[in-house]
Specification:
107 residues, membrane, transmembrane helix
């Protein structure tokens, strides 16, 4: 699954969305209950690392798939709202912006 741009983006987009949900749940328990900040301490660094991985994968995918500027911007912006990376990935597949078999030869 990691051998194509589509596979890499799919995995990292899903991981980014799941880590977002984990962080949101951790924040709920931290601020809405008296259960402490364990969830934020666990999911904060995880989400941060996966967020950075998503940005890196988007940069490589944009180059490999020859995305225009707006597609790349939307991919990056989708990392901000929770679960939007999954929506972007599905849209990119559906519209042909993310071809699961097309890989540009670099160099």
């Amino acid at each position: 699954m990691f051998d194509t741009p589509a596979g890499r983006l799919r995995i990292v987009a899903l991981a980014e969305a799941v880590s977002w949900v984990g962080l949101l749940i951790g924040m709920f328990f931290k601020y809405a209950t008296d259960l402490g900040e364990f969830g934020v301490k666990v999911f904060g660094p995880i989400h941060g690392a996966v967020f950075v991985a998503y940005i890196v994968v988007v940069a490589f995918t944009a180059r490999e798939q020859r995305w225009n500027r707006w597609t790349t911007v939307w991919a990056l912006v989708s990392s901000i709202p929770p679960l939007a990376t999954i929506v972007f990935e599905r849209w990119a597949l559906r519209t042909g912006k993310l071809d699961p078999v097309r890989v540009r030869q670099l160099g």
